[in-house]
Each structure stands twice: as C-alpha cells, then as structure tokens.
Amino acid sequence: MTAPELRVGVSELRRRPGNRMQLDRSVPLGPLAISSSSIPEGEEVLLSATLEALSDGVTLSGSVQVPWQGECRRCLEMTSGVVTVEIAEIFKDRTEGELGEILPISNDSIDLGSVVHDAAILALPIAPLCKADCAGPIPEVFPVITPETAEADPIDPRWASLGELRFDSDPSE
Ligand SMILES: [Zn+2]
C-alpha cells in the first residue's frame, strides 16, 4: 500500500518537456526490517528528488534518507544512524508490451511507493557498526581480528601472557 504522499500527479508537469518539479516528502515507512537492521516504527524516510518532464515520460532523480537501527556487529550494542541512497527512475505511459526497467504513469500520476520502499531496503546496513573503529565488547580480551590487523600485528604480547595464564590454570596439568 502506498502512502498518499508518494502518489504524485504529473499532468501539470507534463505540459511542456523540460518542466521540473522539486519533491520533498517525509513518509513513515517503518517498521521495515532486514535481518540485521530496521527502520524503527514511526520513523520517517525523507525523499528529496527532482521530477523532469520528457516528451514521452518523466524522470525522477534524487535521494532517500533512511533512519535505521540495529545491533553493532562487533560490540552487539544497539546502534542507529541515517543512510542516504541515490535514486534515479524513468516513468512512461503504459504502452503495449513490457515496460521493463521503466515504471508506468497511470491516471496522470506516478507512484513512488515501490521506489522509496526498494531504496530503503537496499539502504539498510547488512552489517551495522556503532562507529567505524568500534573495537568490540572487551578489546583487551577479544580484539577484533580483521585481515589488516592480523597482518600488521601478528603477535600481541597480551595474547602471550593470556596463553600462559590458561596454561597454568589448566586442570589437566
Ligand atoms: Zn560497536
């Protein structure tokens, strides 16, 4: 179901090719979730785009700002942010045959519901981080191993002492 704000009449715009129209809409899209993150209920997605009339259609270009929340993949704390994705679409009058990548204009209006929905789904982080250098829950004990750190710092002296501790307290000794 499309929010009414995302149904846009284009008959005025289409009177002359080259006409432009700025679109700024905030729409509540949540709750919308993928496995790792979601748009919280009540949060609004912000669409900011320009429509331009072609002789046989309308182009849309702009961006969608998506608020999200999710569990940081390293420290597992809840974190949140806003991500912006670019969008670009072409709408044309429905003609015979498949429109393919081109979206339909029907009853002199275009429906941005699926455009915004799909952009928001794509924008949601698959592996959220609370901050770019999040070190994890207890960095001294469980340092985050990435290919870079593993290569740059193969032997951490703290690991050596931890190894000794474990060895000394091993009940099988
Ligand atoms: Zn974190």
Textual characterization of the structure:
InterPro entries: YceD. It holds the Pfam family YceD. By secondary structure, the chain is α+β, with helices and mostly antiparallel strands. The protein has two domains: 4-123, no CATH class; 138-173, no CATH class. The protein is built from three helices and nine strands; from the N terminus they run βββββββββααα. Strands 2, 3, 4, 5, 6, 7 and 8 form a seven-stranded mixed beta sheet that branches. The protein has a two-stranded antiparallel sheet with strand order 1-9. A hairpin with a 3-residue loop joins strand 3 (32-33) and strand 4 (37-39). Mean pLDDT is 83; it is low at 163-170. Zinc ion is lined by residues 72, 74-75, 77, 130, 134.
In total, the number of domains comes to: 2
Distance between the termini: 67 Å
Query: Structural class given helices, strands, pairing?
Result: alpha+beta
**If helices are DSSP runs of H or I spanning 4 or more residues, what is the number of helices?**
3
Question: Percent helix among the residues?
Answer: 10-25%
- Over the alpha carbons, how many angstroms does the gyration radius reach? 25 Å
Short description:
The chain has 173 residues and is an alpha+beta fold. Helices cover 17% and strands 38% of the residues.
Task: Give me the secondary-structure topology.
Elements: E1 7-9, E2 20-28, E3 32-33, E4 37-39, E5 44-54, E6 57-71, E7 78-93, E8 103-105, E9 109-111, H1 113-123, H2 147-152, H3 157-168
Parallel strand pairs: 7-8
Antiparallel strand pairs: 1-9, 2-5, 3-4, 4-6, 5-6, 6-7
Zinc ion binds next to loops.
